[in-house]
Amino acid sequence: MLYESMLLFGVLFISAWIFSTLLQQRHALYLRHALEGWLFAILALYFIWFWRHGGQTLAMKTWRIKLVSKDGGRVGVGRAILRFLLCWLWFLPGLAVAWALGAKGWMLIGVPAINLIVWAALVYLDPQRQFLHDRLAGTRIADLNPGMLNAPPL
C-alpha cells in the first residue's frame, strides 16, 4: 500500500494541477468538493483500468502479484468497480467513527489506524488468506512467484 501510495501521489498531483489550472482554482476551498470528486474519479479510473488490463497496477507488477477473479480469470468491470468501492472500507469506517467522536489530535490518527489494523487482521479469518473486500467482490490476489517463499537464499 505504501509503494502504491507513492506512485499515486504523482498521478493525483498532476490531476489536481490540471483541475486547478483548467478551472482557475485560486483558493484551496474554492471548488473543494468538485476537486475531491475529480480525484476520486481519477483513483477509480487508475485502479479499474489496471485491474481490467492485465490485473496489475504499477506497484502490483513490482511485487509480482495480480488481481484475478475467484476462478482465476480476468476481472470484469463490475467486479473491479465493486472491489474499488469495497477497498475504501480500509479507511472510511475509522474516519467516520473519528468524526462521530469529535476526535482531536492523536485520536484523528489512532481511530482510523485501529480500523486499518482490524481490517488487515480479518485476513486471518479467511482460509485462503484473502482480504474481506476480495472475498466480497469475488476477486483474489494471485502470487506470481509461488515458489519464491521456499527458494534458497542467494
Structure write-up:
This protein has one domain (2-144). A two-stranded antiparallel sheet has the order 1-2. With 154 residues, the protein is mostly helical. The protein has helices at residues 2-22, 32-52, 58-63, 77-87, 92-100, 107-121, 132-137, and strands spanning 65-69, 139-143. Helices cover 58% and strands 6% of the residues. 12% of the residues are buried. The two termini are 27 Å apart.
Shape: globular
Structural class: mainly alpha
Rg from Cα: 18 Å
Give the rounded overall mean pLDDT: 90
Q: Report the biggest beta sheet as strand number plus sense, adding barrel if it closes.
A: 2 strands, antiparallel
Helix count from the secondary structure assignment: 7
Spatial order of the strands forming the largest sheet: 1-2
User: How far do the termini sit from each other?
Assistant: 27 Å
Percent helix: 55-70%
Number of E-type strands: 2
Q: What is the beta-strand fraction?
A: 5-15%
The total tally of domains equals 1
Detail the poorly predicted runs.
Answer: none
Helix-strand layout with pairing:
Elements: H1 2-22, H2 32-52, H3 58-63, E1 65-69, H4 77-87, H5 92-100, H6 107-121, H7 132-137, E2 139-143
Helix pairs in contact: 1-2, 2-4, 5-6
In brief, what are we looking at here?
The chain has 154 residues and is mostly helical. Helix content is 58%, strand content 6%.
